[in-house]
Amino acid sequence: MKPQVVNIFGKTYKIQYKEMEEDLYGECKNDEFLIEIDRNQTGEKLIHTLLHEYFHAVIYRVGLKQVLSHDVEEMICENFATFLCDNKLVIPKEGQDD
Fold first, then answer.
1. Within a 13 Å sphere around the CA of 92, how many CA atoms are in the beta-carbon half?
2. Which of 27, 54, 59, 89 has minimal CB crowding within 10 Å?
3. Ordered strands of the 34-38 beta sheet
4. Are the C-beta atoms of residues 52 and 38 closer than 8 Å to each other?
5. Kind of pairing between the strands at 11-18 and 34-38
6. CB distance 40 to 98 below 8 Å
7. What is the mean pLDDT of the chain?
């Protein structure tokens, strides 16, 4: 089962799975405490996208959003998600990518 919520430093973010625009896999809406994910993703791509969006939320919650450029924030989120996935440091529970 796909996660429906995630706790980011004491704030619960709802995760919605929906049809997204082409070339958009996910979006973190910090002002709404909402993470939107393209509902067509599964497996490792889903995990990577969730991690990427979680990192956007972490950056916001710890107060770094105000001091990072958009490009630097994207680089951080993408590289941490890739690092965790490439090294199998995040393994979904059975059935989690459904």
1. 18
2. 89
3. 5-8, 11-18, 34-38, 26-29
4. no
5. parallel
6. no
7. 93
Residue written as tokens 């680089």? Answer: 75
Helix-, strand-, coil-residue percentages of the chain, each rounded to 5: 40, 20, 40
What pLDDT digit, counting tens, does each position of 47-58 carry?
999 999 999 999
Q: Residue 43: which H helix or E strand, with range? A: helix 43-61
Sequence-separated (6 or more) residues with CB below 8 Å from residue 67:
none
Q: Please, what sign has the CA dihedral across residues 60, 63, 64, 69?
A: positive
Are 97 and 2 contacting, i.e. CB atoms less than 8 angstroms apart? yes
Which H or E run includes 27? strand 26-29
φ/ψ (deg, to 5) at 21? -60, 155
